[in-house]
Write a structure and sequence with these properties.
heterodimer; A: mainly alpha; two-stranded antiparallel sheet; 5 strands; about 0% strand; B: mainly beta; 5-stranded mixed β-sheet; elongated
């Protein structure tokens, strides 16, 4: 009896063992269970060359980030709540952070890492995936576009923070070292060399790609000639940036850009570098101005345009809608919004031109503008001032710049360039006279060859600034580099003494995320700054103009 | 009699009972006194015993060894006996027995080779006035199942018998005699013999912990004394005596080591149920629910993740809250990993075992329950009345002093009295071969926030059938639930009516916006748009939100179980079970045109989500039991498969909103917001497992538990190790049986166990896709690399405990120490962005939880008309992050966006530490003041406190006086700190009483210092609160002690005395929940939580206030 029981017992164990054995076999579906149904695999992307195009398209839309679609939270902190306002173009009526925020130099930790994050995760990351397909060998011209996109995006990043990881990005899963800004710029020029080479090869070959690259390229629709002009113009811009820091390199690179043998620069508005809004995407700046009512025109911009009686004013901005001072072009002074303000106090000041006129300049489908012919003319004007070869005449370039901008915005006033009396208007805040300020500058419009080089520079940069609207990132860089245009300083400076009200903010601190995840590298990077202080008052490497 | 504890006994298979049956067979006519604990020992004929002060136990043992006679006695009786001095040489057994039992309380009978020792009757047998008749009877348990081996004794005599396998017995007695029916695990019952020679007796399960039988892993029932780990059992009554719409909330304060935080999402909201502290950063920390042996789908539903809140930031409810409390027979809480080792990964956080009611054979019983509950806010924020709006259209109230202040009670105009009606009926009945249970319950009502309504229907049908001479038992149980919750309150800043309500300028009259929350816009041909004087994203007209931003959550759920159990022979049964749990959730929010422009487009917006969660479970179990003379072994071996899949889709009209205003259909959606819309991630996971356990007992006083389980998890696909193995071992010694303890100690036990529980990662962590589809056919590159070197998480758990019972079990103490270490956690940590990852997965960490739990119960009065039993339960848990990762020093549970609040943990800290900002201070601790304002310290957020309770104490009382019952529960949670962003916002807007008082007092008193080094003692209130208040202010100034002591529940019941035979019982009760805070320091109830997931712990951002409720209930049995 006992024996039988024991035997039966064995059966149970045998059954259990068999069961266990059979379970092992059942795990063959585990890989399919553990595959995310919402993911897209490389195999699925291969068809129709999507794997070549979609990564690049995503990167192009991230320079001025709207690649995520939906609410533009990323762009708002990437650029709109820093450079767009520090450049004198915009200001917000919203008292973010109980009135203490970037716009009165109380720098918000949670905001200031976004531009950096976007540079790596939304631009370099997809381009790295693109590169892993071997595209540099298969379609070098497409890789050239990718490289130019990368330099376009990352030059904006370094111009915010200074040193950034660049040469060794993606090499490790833990810590990536920073490069000095000088090294980063040198690498930009090398990458532009590579890109321009590939483009010239492609153009001279006269062949076309075996797939429709235009559908992926939301910047130049696959036109490599335009890409080459933009690459040269970008080189000229970057060379100009470093003119006070490394004159020789600036001249060498600037002259390389200006040399017509290298493919030429942007000269017509048709060649402007703009990122098209396709599908369900929207221009993030317009979204912020309309749907959120979180951005308004800056007092500096309104005062210059008002004072100069500039016809572009109605193309740039709407009139105020506040019943107590309707139909005026009036901006908000930076640093004037405090905890005492409600959003409604200032939200009816001038908005971006989304309403006024028969065809307002800005809609949610308006392409994002990153470089215009006008800017290139003004870069040439400064190059001529510096004596760089092939720059042409200073006055000619200056006036061409104004003309190109007027053409771009479809306004005309032949007398404008000859106005030698109008100066920027003083600022009068109808809501709070404490924000009032006198005219920021005495600079007039008309070119004066007899003026001092400094006056000439102010004139060029002021008009360049007026022409570059609404691209605040480059405008802020040029303001910091040259000190022009003269912008109203912040009304309230809550930086705790780290940022000079007069000199204004020079950079953004490194992202908090770097301190948390890459602490040794960020400490080393601080030593690469002009003074080892990671705050908004520290000057970048190219910010060496004596003042 | 109110039972604290419900227990069921298996008819076969457990060592104690097995032994009982064995003895029963040996003694055909057994005449014993009430037997609680039987011991039998067994050998010769002459006996030699010498010794001084010998314990009777030793004398019996000696006789047994020398003669082979077996003794049967009740140990409790024996403990009452004084030691004896004997000097006997080659005496007969009766001589020895007479010598040691003479003149004592005992008598003995010798039947064959068994000596039955019993108490000497105190009352003389009454003379045979009338002749004995043969009484026949049958004893069944409360579930209608026959009970085998029940002892029947004629009171005052030594006549007795036991029931046979059919539960039947025959005994000689005469009318007027009282039969004492007693059985292990059941309350003793006395039946007076009438003229009826046939008795049907139903025993009720017993309150006593001593011989209680508990349900353990996989639905296996075991004698509690054999358990090697800590469990705590509650009967259905504890869940129903003062009901809450979410039944799990009624466990709060009653179980040591269990922490329940309920969601601040109004009626029907979910609850966070944590046993012995949080262990996992990314995974779930919630206890596992097991219904009738089958793990319930415990997937966390949608929960808020940010302070902002918003459309998709709703509480999706939890699976347990849908159950009908009336269907529950008992709940057993297996607290530690040891207890749960057999449940595998999910069991690492402890298990809550739910046993549901079944049909009973015999006369059909109908139970009717009807309850009406009202609720009110238990506290409200306090406002100032003296200062006006700063200026027109300003959102703030920092204006001039009001000359004739009026007390504006805006909240009174908004909040309503909550009402819940619950009606339930259950029918049970059947024959010996088939039993049926049917129940229906209806819950309907409303919360304190207008528009927040709940409607729920529960239907349960359970059928049990017995076939082939009762060898095969088949059970099927089908539950259907349908629930609709309207306007579940959304915490946070967006779409929350409380922001506009609380922050409304104090000098304005809000009532005009109540009745006219919308006005016609002539420019849009009289489209009704919101009427609210303030333009700010964080606030809207509260009534507009209720009526024009409504949300609804509809759930349909089918839960079906079936099981077949075959009793192969006396020592083996085989069981197969299958279950499917399918939950369909439909959530939508309609956002009308006229909603604040940051939140919605001009034509309105629409959010729709449809999710189906399906869990399929199957297992096969072989239960065996090998009884032995000294060593008994029983256990099980089995295999299970569990498959969980969540499917669904979300449609959210993005920034472009709708084509035509206020038409909420998918056709009317202009574009989808690709970031939230689309086919949802499936999260498909499957676990296949084999397991075995053995429980070895030696002489019924040493128990050794061994379990082993191996899981194969699909979530581990693409990693080197597809499976993980985890063992557990437990040992338990019944001291009171092993040693001779003083009489006052009725029971003593020490136990210890050690377990390792594995846990698989979340789905897809080892196989993150390289890219996903974003808007308009664009791809979004993954920002986390696949983690294909991932290892399963491990929790090592050690538990030591002891149980003591005194004074006839009236006083019991149960103390447990535990320590768990969770290692190899899969964490998703922030990466340096230049690595091209936003996050990386790592296996790291060592999170330790250790603590002590103690339960003391005392039956203050256990006899007579007035009865009172009281229980104290205490627990403390210390959570410590011993190790994290060489790469990072912290792990963030919820981020900093939108507020100076982050919940994160660092090495040396604990789970859920709160980080925020503080004021700048000088070396002397004085607040730095610049330009008349305090200075906020810049840089990274600093540690402010931990929200977790340090220790908690619950005091539960049940009193009976005749037909009246009264129960109350006081519980306290001590320690911990919480943050109130509500208060911070109210202060910065100048509406709070604090901000008014500060102005009245001429400023805020501080210990500060200005730029010049001069001391500052007073600071202007507006300057002060403009810096420290607000959602991004100095959150460190808004930390409060989380200590609360409350009268959690009280119930007064009355059993209506009945002569009517149709109505068997009728009881009315008055109940109350959360009646009184004896102590509460925070401006909100710290027990409430915005999210029942791991994040957002200990922070209040406009949570709906906790409620106080009163109810009237009726229970009737027919």
């Amino acid at each position: 009896m006992k024996l039988i029981n024991q035997l039966r017992g064995y059966k149970v164990w045998v059954a259990a063992a068999l069961l266990a054995g059979s379970m092992n076999a059942c795990t063959k579906n585990f890989e399919s269970y553990n595959t995310d149904n919402t993911g897209v695999t490389g195999g699925q992307l291969a068809y129709d060359f999507n794997v070549l195009g979609l990564y690049l398209k995503s990167a192009e839309m991230s320079i001025y980030n709207f690649s995520g679609g939906g609410d533009p939270n990323s762009f708002q902190v990437q650029q709109n709540l820093n450079a767009d306002c520090y450049s004198g173009y915009f200001m917000s009526a919203t008292p973010f952070g109980s009135g203490l925020n970037n716009l009165n130099y109380s720098l918000v930790t949670g905001w200031n890492g976004e531009a950096y994050k976007v540079g790596y995760l939304n631009v370099i990351s997809p381009l790295t995936k693109l590169r892993s397909t071997g595209i540099e060998k298969t379609f070098p011209a497409v890789w050239a576009v990718a490289l130019i996109t990368k330099v376009s995006a990352m030059s904006r990043v370094t111009d915010i923070y200074g040193p950034i990881p660049y040469s060794r990005v993606g090499e490790s899963n833990t810590s990536i070292p920073f490069d000095s800004q000088q090294d980063v710029y040198k690498r930009f020029f090398l990458e532009l060399d590579t890109a321009a080479g590939y483009l010239r090869q492609q153009i001279s070959s006269g062949k076309s790609l075996p797939f429709n690259f235009a559908q992926f390229d939301v910047i130049y629709n696959g036109n490599f000639t335009q890409w080459l002009k933009y690459a040269n113009s970008l080189r000229l811009r970057l060379a100009t940036h470093i003119n006070y820091a490394d004159k020789a390199l600036a001249k060498a690179e600037g002259e390389k850009a200006l040399d017509p043998a290298n493919g030429g620069l942007i000269t017509a508005n048709a060649d402007n570098m703009t990122v098209k809004i396709t599908g369900a995407f929207t221009n993030p700046l317009v979204f912020i101005a309309t749907d959120w009512a979180d951005t308004r025109i800056n007092a500096s911009l309104a005062c210059y345009l008002n004072g100069y009686k500039d016809p572009r004013i109605g193309r740039y901005m709407d009139k105020s809608t506040d019943p107590s001072f309707p139909n005026q072009y009036i901006g908000i002074r930076i640093g004037s919004i405090t905890s005492a303000n409600a959003k409604d106090d200032y939200v009816k000041y001038s908005n971006l031109n989304v309403n006024d006129g028969a065809t307002p300049s800005f809609s949610k489908q308006t392409p994002v503008q990153l470089m215009t012919a006008a800017e290139v003319y003004f870069l040439r004007a400064e190059a001529a001032l510096n004596g760089w070869a092939n720059a042409g005449g200073t006055q000619q370039a200056y006036e061409d710049g104004i003309a190109a901008s007027f053409a771009q915005w479809n306004v005309s006033n032949p007398a404008y360039k000859d106005d030698n009396t109008s100066v920027p208007a003083p600022y009068v805040d109808p809501k709070n006279s404490a924000n009032n300020a006198g005219s920021p500058s005495t600079i007039t419009i008309k070119w004066n060859e007899a003026a001092t080089p400094e006056q000439k520079l102010e004139r060029i940069i002021t008009q360049k600034w007026l022409a570059m609207f609404p691209e605040g990132q480059e405008a802020w860089t040029e303001f910091r580099r040259t000190g022009y245009p003269k912008l109203f300083p912040v009304v309230h400076n809550n930086s705790g003494g780290t940022i000079s009200t007069e000199l204004q903010i020079r950079r953004l601190p490194f992202p908090q995320n770097e301190y948390n995840t890459n602490p040794q590298a960020v400490q080393a990077a601080i030593q690469l700054l002009s003074t080892p202080a990671d705050n908004g008052g520290t000057r970048l490497w190219w910010d060496q103009k004596p003042r | 009699m109110e039972l604290l504890c419900t227990c069921k006994v298996r008819r076969k298979g457990r060592p104690l009972l097995q032994k009982l049956l064995l003895i029963m067979r040996l003694t055909a006519i057994l005449t014993i006194v009430f037997t609680l604990n039987l011991s039998a020992n067994s050998f010769s004929q002459s006996v030699t015993i010498k010794g001084k002060r010998l314990a009777l136990y030793d004398v019996f043992n000696s006789i047994s060894h020398q003669t082979g006679y077996e003794f049967v006695y009740d140990e409790r009786l024996l403990q009452q006996a004084a030691p004896v001095t004997l000097n006997m040489q080659s005496a007969t057994v009766p001589q020895v027995l007479n010598a040691c039992l003479n003149n004592r309380l005992f008598t003995y009978n010798i039947v064959d080779k068994t000596i039955v020792v019993s108490a000497r009757p105190r009352v003389k047998d009454t003379p045979l006035a009338s002749p004995n008749i043969a009484i026949q009877g049958k004893v069944t348990g409360p579930d209608g199942q026959p009970l085998v081996g029940v002892s029947i004794q004629v009171k005052g005599t030594s006549r007795g018998t036991v029931t046979n396998v059919q539960g039947a017995f025959t005994i000689d007695a005469k009318p007027g005699d009282v039969l004492i029916i007693s059985f292990i695990g059941y309350a003793q019952q006395q039946v007076t013999v009438g003229n009826d020679a046939n008795l049907a007796i139903t025993l009720q399960t017993q309150d006593s912990q001593l011989n209680a039988v508990v349900v353990t892993a996989l639905g296996v029932k075991r004698a509690e004394k054999s358990i090697t780990y800590s469990t705590q059992q509650l009967n259905g009554l504890e869940l129903t005596k003062a009901k809450d719409p979410n039944l799990i909330n009624t466990l709060n304060g009653k179980v040591a080591g269990l922490t329940i935080s309920s969601s601040a999402s109004g009626v029907g909201g979910s609850a966070k149920v944590i046993l012995r502290g949080s262990k996992s950063g990314l995974g779930s920390n919630q206890a596992l629910y097991v219904i009738d042996g089958v793990p319930m789908n415990n997937s966390l539903t949608n929960q808020p993740t940010s302070i902002y809140g918003g459309t998709s930031s709703y509480d999706g409810g939890d699976p347990i809250s849908n159950l009908n409390p009336e269907d529950i027979e008992s709940i057993n809480v297996l607290k530690g990993a040891s207890a749960a080792a057999l449940y595998g990964s999910q069991g690492a956080n402890g298990v809550i075992l739910v046993t549901t009611k079944s049909g009973k054979s015999g006369k059909p019983a109908v139970n009717v329950y009807s309850g009406f509950n009202i609720s009110q806010a238990a506290y409200l924020p306090k406002f100032q009345n003296n200062y006006a709006q700063t200026k027109d259209s300003s959102t703030q109230s920092w204006g001039a002093k009001i000359n004739n202040p009026v007390n504006r009670d805006n909240l009174d105009q908004f909040f309503q009295t909550g009402q819940i009606f619950t009606n339930a009926i259950s029918l049970s009945g059947g024959s010996e071969k088939a039993q049926t249970y049917f129940s229906y319950a209806n819950t309907s009502g409303r919360g304190i926030e207008p528009g927040n309504d709940i409607g729920r229907h529960n239907l349960d049908f359970k059928e049990t059938g017995h076939f082939f001479d009762d060898k095969l038992t088949a059970t099927a149980d089908v539950n259907y639930m349908t629930q609709k919750i309207d306007n579940t309150p959304l915490s946070g800043f967006y779409f929350n009516p409380l922001t506009g309500l609380y922050l409304f300028p104090r000098s304005l009259d809000i009532s005009q916006y109540k009745n006219n929350f919308e006005v016609a816009d002539p420019g849009r041909n009289f489209l009704p748009v919101q009427n609210w004087p303030l333009n700010e994203d964080v606030q809207q007209n509260p009534w507009w939100i209720i009526h024009r931003n409504p949300n609804s959550l509809r759930r349909n759920r089918l839960l079906a179980n079936a099981s077949l159990k075959y009793q192969a022979n006396s020592w083996l049964n085989i069981q197969a079970r299958g279950s499917i749990d399918r939950i369909n959730d439909l959530y939508e929010q309609k956002i009308y045109a006229g909603t604040q422009q940051v939140l919605a487009s001009a034509n309105g917006s629409y959010y729709y989500s449809n999710t189906t969660t399906t869990q399929q479970y199957g297992d096969v179990l072989a239960n065996f039991s090998f009884p032995g003379k000294k060593i008994s072994i029983n256990g099980l071996a089995g295999a299970s498969i569990r498959d969980v899949k969540i499917q669904g889709d979300v449609i959210s009209s993005g920034k472009d909103g709708l084509y035509l205003p206020n038409i909420f259909t998918i056709q009317n959606v202009k574009t989808l917001d690709a970031r939230i819309s689309g086919t949802a991630q499936e999260k498909h996971s499957q676990w296949q497992s084999v397991f075995a356990s053995a429980n070895i007992s030696y002489n019924d006083w040493v128990f050794l538990d061994l379990t082993a389980r191996n899981d194969w998890a699909s979530d581990l696909a693409f990693t080197p190790q597809l499976s993980y193995f985890y063992p557990s071992v437990g040992l338990n010694v019944i001291l009171s049986q092993a040693l001779h303890l003083p009489e006052a100690i009725s029971f003593a036990k020490v136990r210890g166990s050690y377990a390792i529980v594995g846990n698989s990662p979340l789905a897809y962590q080892s196989n993150t896709p390289g890219a996903k589809l974003g808007s308009s056919g664009n791809i979004v590159v993954s920002t986390a690399n696949p983690f294909n070197t991932l290892k399963p998480e491990k929790t090592k758990s050690l538990e030591l405990g002891t149980e003591w019972r005194f004074i006839d079990n009236r006083l019991s103490v149960d103390v447990t120490y535990y320590k768990t270490n969770t290692t190899n956690q899969t964490m998703e940590i922030a990466a340096a962005w230049a690595t091209l990852n936003n996050t990386v997965f790592i296996n790291a960490g060592n999170i330790q939880n250790q603590g002590v739990e103690a339960i003391v119960r005392y039956d203050v009065f256990d006899k007579g008309k007035f009865r009172w039993n009281t229980a104290l339960n205490f627990s403390t848990n210390e959570n410590k992050i011993i190790e994290l990762s060489p790469q990072v020093d912290r792990f963030t549970l919820s981020g900093a966006s939108g507020a100076n609040y982050a919940s994160q943990f660092k090495v040396g800290g604990s789970f859920g530490d709160i980080y925020g900002t503080v004021l700048s201070r000088d070396a002397q601790g004085r607040i730095l003041v610049k330009d008349g304002k305090p200075v906020k310290q810049g840089g990274d957020m600093v540690y402010l406190g931990n929200a977790n309770t340090r220790w908690q104490l619950g005091w539960n009382n049940n009193l009976t006086f005749g037909n009246f019952t009264f129960s109350f529960l006081i519980d306290g949670k001590f320690g911990g700190k919480v943050m109130s962003l509500t208060q911070a916002m109210m202060d910065s807007y100048g509406v709070s009483k604090a901000s008014g008082d500060a102005r009245d007092a001429g400023g805020v008193k501080i210990n500060g210092v200005d730029e010049a080094g001069n001391p500052v003692t007073t600071i202007d209130a507006a300057n002060w609160y403009s810096v420290i208040g607000g959602r991004e202010g100095v959150s460190g100034e808004y930390m409060y002690s989380a200590t609360t002591v409350r009268l959690r529940e009280a119930a007064l019941g009355y059993f209506v005395p009945l002569k009517n035979t149709f109505v068997k019982s009728l009881k009315f009760s008055l109940t109350g929940r959360n009646l009184l805070y004896f102590s509460k320091k925070a401006p909100f109830d710290p027990e409430q939580t915005m999210s029942t997931a791991n994040g957002l712990g200990g922070v209040d951002a406009f949570m709906l206030p906790a409620t106080r409720s009163y109810g009237l209930t009726l229970n009737a049995t027919f």
